[in-house]
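Figure 3 (text version): structure tokens given as input.
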């Protein structure tokens, strides 16, 4: 009787896992993932547009997620577009969560490191979804990335060992940025895309968007990580920077606003590339 009960329990567990894997590999989940890529692309493109306007003194918006959301809300169909962003980022969250639980596509998708990476991405996208959802419901405007970064740094520095933790976090973000730059320049993203039916010109265009856009995105990550680590070492939380302040750093180099404009165009290109991923990414 005990053995029979155990076998029944194992069958039920296996059945539940099989059902979960089917759901993770379903066309619905694939659609949610593609909607997420579009939402991410729109967000990066808007951040790039705001940064480009800032470079030439035509905008005082925050060049980050909060500024992009406010820009969307100010359009004639702002409410509808906000809800579409909520759906897109929620879809990306669910897809990354399914990868963390059942593994991603490809031979390396079931490794522990890949699952943990998917879980971290799911958490990040869940936070983004929550912020946009609150704004869409009229429950409060999203805080700027600068304020969030400074507040979290200040809280961490109040605790014993907090300074070391923030330095480590900053170093990890910078390393992630350098990794993104390397992977983009080496075109690693093409390994996860099915573009066999696309024309040569289309493949070349998507490759350039992925390379240049990915490098620009990585540069922003590196900048944020470095300033976060410096803020921890100096015990000055206000030195921590979000995306907006990290972008403004480029405007204060000897190249002036032109370097900021260059990075801004790169972010717009990454937004376009993310939309291309919605079409050709293997999900």
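Below: residues designed for each position.
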């Amino acid at each position: 009787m005990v053995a029979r009960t155990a076998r029944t329990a194992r069958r039920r567990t296996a059945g539940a896992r099989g059902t979960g894997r089917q759901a993770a590999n379903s066309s619905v989940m694939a659609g949610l993932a593609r909607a997420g890529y579009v939402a991410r692309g729109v967000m990066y493109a808007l951040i790039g547009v705001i940064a480009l306007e800032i470079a030439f003194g035509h905008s005082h918006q925050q060049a980050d997620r909060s500024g992009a959301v406010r820009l969307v809300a100010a359009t004639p169909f702002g409410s509808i577009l906000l809800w579409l962003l909520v759906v897109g980022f929620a879809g990306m969250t669910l897809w990354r969560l399914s990868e963390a639980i059942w593994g991603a596509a490809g031979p390396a998708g079931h490794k522990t490191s890949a699952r943990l990476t998917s879980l971290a991405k799911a958490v990040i996208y869940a936070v983004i979804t929550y912020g946009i959802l609150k704004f869409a419901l009229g429950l409060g405007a999203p805080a700027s990335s600068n304020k969030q970064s400074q507040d979290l740094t200040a809280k961490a520095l109040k605790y014993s060992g907090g300074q070391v933790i923030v330095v480590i976090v900053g170093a990890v973000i910078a390393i992630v940025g350098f990794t993104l730059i390397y992977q983009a320049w080496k075109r690693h993203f093409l390994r996860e895309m099915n573009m066999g039916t696309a024309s040569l010109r289309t493949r070349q265009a998507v490759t350039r968007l992925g390379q240049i856009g990915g490098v620009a995105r990585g540069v922003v990550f590196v900048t944020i990580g470095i300033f976060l680590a410096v803020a921890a070492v100096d015990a000055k939380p206000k030195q921590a920077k979000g995306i907006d302040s990290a972008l403004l750093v480029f405007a204060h180099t000897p190249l002036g606003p032109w370097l900021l404009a260059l990075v801004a165009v790169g972010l717009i290109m990454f937004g376009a590339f993310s939309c291309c991923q919605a079409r050709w990414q293997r999900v």
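The longest helix spans residues 200-233.
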